[in-house]
Amino acid sequence: MKDVIRRIGEITLQLARVVEKAVWEAPDFRMLEVAVVRGAQEAARQLLVTALEALDRQLMEQRDRRQLKCVNRQPRSLMTWVGEIQWERRYYQERPSGVRRFLLDEVLGLAPRQRYSPLVQEFGIQLCTQVPFAAAADWLERVSCGAVRLSAMALWADVQAAGARADEAAKAQREAVFERGEIPPGSRPAAAVDLEFDELLVRGRRRGPDGQKERIALMHALAYEGKATDARGRTVLKNRRVHVAVGEGTASIEEALAAFAAAWDWARVEQCTVGGDGAPWIRKVLEYLPQATYRLDPFHLKRALRRGLRHDPEAHRQLAAALAEGKPWPEVAAILDAARRRAQGDDRDRVQELKQYMKNHWDGIVADANVRRLGAIEGQNYHVLARRMKRRGASWSEGGARHLARLLAARANGELERYARPVWQRRQAPPVVSTPQGRLFGQRLSRSDVEDVAQWLRVRIPALYGPHADREWVQALRHLAGLSVA
């Protein structure tokens, strides 16, 4: 234990020397800052190794010697936020099973062959949800002053593992609700919950029969309790929840509904509105929520109006006014018929397509004072998914798209740490005695111990008792060397 105190004193002295050298040699503030940061990183690496070795020794002393035999020491390295560290920890063998264990790894939750620390891994995954993998690797190195150096492929592998955990959790949640019939844990009541669904296509890596790259369909589901205005005057969604899956099948819809049922108690939701672009798979949601009302997404309706009546501004104005006033379908159809008679060629065909489109989705178009206005899904498509996954030159495998999309949804829900933080099943390890305040590793220093360490400090740090003993920095060192006496 006295060795730990001495080691901390050495590290402190080394850091003081680094700062002194930087003060005299740094040509400008930038170089001074870099020198101090790198010196602090080196000190932090040494402190981490000292702490690991001390904890490993404590575990050895507290183990059950009848069950665990200490065999030898094995080296290990780990990339941490302050750089790579290397140390040795003890290797044990269970009696009588012969199972071999590293108690230090188990207590700290370090998985076998884990190459970098949980903090580095978590931050790297979070960064990859915002920028490409190569850019994330570059930013990690830059913000750590070169201490953290990871390849883009290493970050990609971490994202795949974290995304797989999120994917398994979503599938397990769906199976629990729709296959085993378990009651969802949602408990929040709401006067109204709005659900919006849309499909976002991202470029795949495989090429189809036509030689073009295939498109991967991401099913994006959005749930919220209405809209509000924040302090800046911006429109925000209240209690927003996001779910993303690959494909448009029934399983994707059930996954989304199971995820939303974990937040809301549907038995206490007074009103529910489902919105979409009119795709048949979105209407399947009404089979699960028969009390819900369907609305066609305003973005897609306006786009259809512009496409069908771009040649006839007057008909476009009349149709928009009729929809705003809540006119019945016969009056709306009459406006479209008149526009069709005036049109020629392709324009006539586009008007007919618009009429058929509006007729098929009239239940989601007709104005109703009791129906809530939606239209938030398109903006959420960009903020949640497209900004990261539809950048220039990006292409994805189906598995890679699924895993990253799961993490992007978790990030939007404020749950990314749940999957980005590495998880390893810890085994039962010997308990560690809690350290009272003012003690080091559960032991109180005796007077002779203090005198020993004090003598060592006088030899290694003579400034503590030399002619400069009254200076502030020396007093700070003496304070750092202060010890409790029994």
UniProtKB/TrEMBL annotation:
Among Pfam families, the record links this protein to: UPF0236
What is the superkingdom listed in this entry's lineage? Bacteria
Q: Which family does it belong to?
A: Belongs to the UPF0236 family.
This chain belongs to which protein, by name?
ISLre2 family transposase
Lineage runs: Bacteria, Bacillati, Bacillota, Clostridia, Eubacteriales
